[in-house]
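Sample entry (171 residues):
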Amino acid sequence: MARLSSSTHTTPLRTETDTFDPSHGVIVFTDGSASVKNRTGGWAWIALDSGDGRIDERGGEEDTTIGRMELTAVVMALESLAEMEGVEDVLVVSDSAYVVDGFNDKTRARNKNGDLWGYLETAAATFRVIEFEHIHGHQKGVEGYWNNCADKAAVAARKVIVDSQVQPKKG
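Predicted structure, serialized as tokens:
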């Protein structure tokens, strides 16, 4: 796979027959977390290359939804990976059917989160090949392990937002 390092790159044009090539790409696990109760959310992504390369990022927002956090995780990952030298192919692994099915089936209605769907399409266009794969949340195995790591990071990012909203008690 491509080595994960910062730098800009140019990507060759894609063709209809291109498929994910691990020697030129990375696998990125994404997840989002949100609370209906207080409308806080977190997102996270973890990218792995064929060596021991790993990078990750997380963040959170107030007044959000799970759909927005799932999409934000992918957008933030793709925007970061687009700035790295040698990353031409990306395999996005997500437990969000909303994200995976929404990206893979362009005929699906995108009535909500139109801004993020636009950012996702723009970011995806920078890669030679981009594929999305759905994984069931909290499953076992290697993919399940990394999905669970992304889940825990997204939950932790959401908790940072929650903790910042807590008002200290007056004594």
